[in-house]
Amino acid sequence: MIRRFPILLLIALFGVGCTSNPDDGGSRRLSLHLTSEPVTLDPSQVEDGLGFRLIANLMEGLMGFNSRGELVKRLAESVDISTDLKTYRFKLRAGAKWSDGVPIEADQFRTAIERTLLPKTGSKLSGLLKWIEGAASFSEGKAATVSGIETNGPEITFHLTKPISFFDQVLALPITYPLRRDVLEANGGKWDPLRGKNIPTNGPYRIRSSTPDQEIFLEAARPIPEKAPTEVRLRIVADESTSSTLFERGSLDVLTRIPVLDQKRLERRGLVKTVPFIATYFLGFNLKKKPFDRAEYRQALSLAIRRIGLVNAIGTGEAPASSWIPKGAEGYYPFRGDAATVKAPPRVKDELRLAFDAGTRNSLVVEKVQSDLKVVLGWDVRLKPMDWKSLVSTIYTDPEMVFRFGWSSPMADPAIFLSPFLSGDPFSFSHYSNPAYDRLVGEIFAMKPSPEREAKMIEAEKILVDQDAVVVPLYHYVSTYAVGPRVAKYEVNPFGITQFEEVEMKP
């Protein structure tokens, strides 16, 4: 799944001189910043880290991940998985309701999944549902319903076409959250609690109000733990220095993106926390654009980058990367060190261009890459800064020859890191296809975590990173954030998500 690293959107003047305090609404109001407004909170369409962070607090599925990254039951009361990993049976928790009081029913999960599978919905994650029996026939318009979804009162069963070891984790993703036909019909088939009218939620919070590109205000939608925030104020601040100033004034309880120049100072005050984050910062290629249609040029670019110097320049705790899968996950292999020598391919006459979403950290990274390519290979590279939406738009349609991006996993099983490079995958921006790689990943998906599976994952990564060099991992992220004095407990799980009902505010 794509993650925003970092996001930069042009916003109206935010009111830098504002001195309002986060506790204006009481001690149980949590105030934190977002770097932009989410593109969508439609469960079928959300695909980036910012959207996941919000929707995880508004909606729930059968399963979910808590603030420690553990897979837990949410709307499911019980789970039964067959030994052949092809049948997943769930019983709904009794009394579960929507925020408007309507009961949650098993058939609402069918509604959601079938909507996600419809091509017109445009879900980039719909491929994770392709293993359900009848999913292909339904999405191709050959069947009126997905035959592999069986509902019986409070029970729902999924029959798969092949063993998938992590399908229970797929059912923790927004693409499977229940949806109601009456709400979809009332909103012209759309479902976005941020922009639609009378869109109910089924999670711990709901949106009380919002001001475009300025703030989103959440309130508890059901009884929550005694110390959890009853209100959450999400202030949209694109400029990192402005958000840092607001935090130090006490107008923000949590600074979710710390400016590089401020981190050491905030660390000395004991306000900074750093936790693992399953994510990789990388450069990608458009394989249809010369010279990077040839592996030798992609390999040379990757080898020329001095990753140790790059992470030292950033200075925020990231680890240089050789593997595509991040540190701490199955399939990770240690950094091999910067290449001692690099054989430069023939010089190219065409201009070399690198697109990136502008921001302090990204600018620092791509300027370092630009310098390395000049020193090691003699290449002149033009940097193309963009705002986040423009970068994403070009990557979805016609990516630049080289582009900066980040990839994080929405689930614990790291095999999902391999899916963007499968032939025809919606996230295969590079136009990459390798039948041998496709077969290998298919085998991995059917296996439970084991030394044998990990060996296959590393084999697949070596195809991507070394043999075909279609992706250039630069470093593995950590989640770094600052927490103010009003907050007793604030945790970010390995997917970059905080469950607000698990936050604890001080009296």
Give structural notes.
By secondary structure, the chain is an alpha+beta fold. It folds into three domains: 2-57 and 203-271 and 484-505, Periplasmic binding protein-like II (D-Maltodextrin-Binding Protein, domain 2), CATH 3.40.190; 60-186, Alpha-Beta Complex (Dipeptide-binding Protein, domain 1), CATH 3.90.76; 277-479, Roll (Dipeptide-binding Protein, domain 3). It is built from 13 helices and 20 strands. α9 (307-314) packs antiparallel against α10 (360-377) and α12 runs antiparallel to α13. The longest helix is centred in the C-terminal third of the chain and has 18 residues, at 360-377. The two termini are 38 Å apart. Residues 1-25 have low confidence and may be disordered.
How would you summarize what this structure contains?
The chain is an alpha+beta fold and 507 residues long. It has helices at residues 49-58, 107-117, 135-139, 167-170, 181-186, 240-249, 260-268, 295-304, 307-314, 360-377, 388-397, 435-445, 451-467; strands at residues 2-3, 29-34, 63-65, 71-73, 76-81, 87-92, 149-152, 155-159, 205-211, 215-220, 231-236, 254-255, 272-285, 319-320, 352-357, 381-386, 402-408, 471-483, 487-489, 504-505.
CATH superfamily of the largest domain: Dipeptide-binding Protein, Domain 3
General shape: globular
Helix content: 25-40%
Low-confidence region ranges: 1-25
Number of helices: 13
Largest sheet: 8 strands, mixed
Number of strands: 20
- Domain tally: 3
Tell me the fraction of residues in β-strands, as a range.
15-25%
Supply Rg: 23 Å
